[in-house]
């Protein structure tokens, strides 16, 4: 039976109250959760009750019992992994997306959300300086953006070699070489595995994790057949960008498709002052990124851009008699990401872009890089702190002498709760890795971070 608007109003009102209480508590809240997943499960698990729960009581129960197990990822003091927060405008737009409940696979079925995503895609091409006329698809995240782009690359490179992968699959196909740097992100390997392409040929990287263009050229010259070259905009540990002009030139001399994994780094292309990092990136064939990581849109904000529209759509899309698809230039959203049914995830991206404007996006990205540089400079003056990377963007890798001391400092910081920074291992050393991605991170958060590290060093001396 259809629920009247009053029931929606009551339940959504309760959810809004809890959401506002959560957001208001963030400035003073410890970042780490206070309960583990197993502890939280005691409230949510067990046999499914035979009787239902009143919707308002359910929302109260959900908020009350989930809160101790939530990480304050929205806080400006969260520096773990590469995770942004959510801009208020983008969050509100995401709420509307849920209320509208549109399946954004077909332009015919949901003209408004398809048009909004088309506009967001055009703005992204303009903002990032990517080729006019490229297809832009909205995926769940950067991993699926890479998968989508590489599916188009696989289709095109095998088609050029005389093989129809859609009809014949990979059994008996020409060998398709994939080359990638030694410090690529592991999600790239995952996408290649999903596509049946196996592990890439590994090309050496320099001390900052950048692929060595000369080594890439030699590797391409040593083999033959269709090829895909995967480059990186933003190393997970150093923030370094591959040398795009030289690497792409080498790839194009061998007719290779070039894909750029720019999960968080592609946004640097919006900032003229960061041009030494991204110069030449637009010469590639496809790009993947995530608007949650740097633009601070809500989750489900992956973005794939493919120059070769004629390769992307047959690689990803499908046609069925019951689907009212149109023959038109923009293409249906379902031809640009590997889903038929999905929420209108491009709408919050549009909202973030429209709320900020081009100047606001540039200020947001440049500001995160400036915060990282400031934090690095201040920590470099703290006895016992080693800054391990050239700080060029939003990533900072730290060590504190021995691996044991670094692990102890990391454990102190995570247990302390004032900030959250995650451990990793880079160049054979345990490190503390800092990623400045949240739009709300400010000088006070940097002050707190420096003091927390000072306290950790004192406590582990």
Task: Please describe what this structure looks like.
The protein is an alpha/beta fold and 461 residues long. It has three domains: 5-67; 93-352, Aspartate Aminotransferase, domain 2 (3-Layer(aba) Sandwich), CATH 3.40.640.10; 367-459, Alpha-Beta Complex (Aspartate Aminotransferase, domain 1), CATH 3.90.1150. The chain has 15 helices and eleven strands. It has helices spanning 5-25, 37-44, 55-66, 88-100, 111-128, 142-160, 165-168, 186-194, 213-221, 244-253, 275-278, 309-316, 346-380, 403-416, 443-459; strands at residues 135-139, 177-181, 201-203, 227-232, 257-261, 286-290, 302-306, 386-387, 395-399, 422-426, 429-435. It has a seven-stranded mixed β-sheet with strand order 1-7-6-5-4-2-3, with helices on both faces. Strand 10 (422-426) and strand 11 (429-435) form a beta hairpin. The longest helix is centred in the C-terminal third of the chain and has 35 residues, at 346-380. The termini are far apart. 46% of the residues are buried. Pfam families: Pyridoxal_deC. One of its GO terms (biological process) is carboxylic acid metabolic process. One of its GO terms (molecular function) is pyridoxal phosphate binding. Keywords: Decarboxylase, Lyase, Pyridoxal phosphate. Its cofactor is pyridoxal 5'-phosphate.
Provide keyphrases for this structure.
alpha/beta; four-stranded antiparallel beta sheet; Aspartate Aminotransferase, domain 2; 461 residues; 11 strands; Aspartate Aminotransferase, domain 1
